[in-house]
Request: fold
Amino acid sequence: MIFRFSFGKLSLDAEIADTPTARAIAAKMPFESTAQTWGEEVYFSTPVSAKLEPGAQQVVDAGTVCFWTQGDAIALPYGRTPISTDHRPKLANPCNVLGTLKNHSLLKNVKAGDKVRVEKA
Reply:
């Protein structure tokens, strides 16, 4: 499935795997939230709660779409976070891996407080 994240005029699509968390998010779409930033990561709260799934990771590749179970939030890392130990994003905690974001480098244009809309593409 394809999720679309729209931050004002900026829209980014992500290829999302069929996982329990992804299905729960899709069932709540469309929804809106407010973007927050943490280093080179954009994250925002969702109307979904989920448990850690097998394969949850804390260190991921840039552009990985993640679900932060401890914050009920989608995390979109596009570079280093404040706790990264190399070039890869290191998330605050292990997160469920949902898929891959196309054109993730464009996330550098998103600012804390920007509105985000999440919907099926």
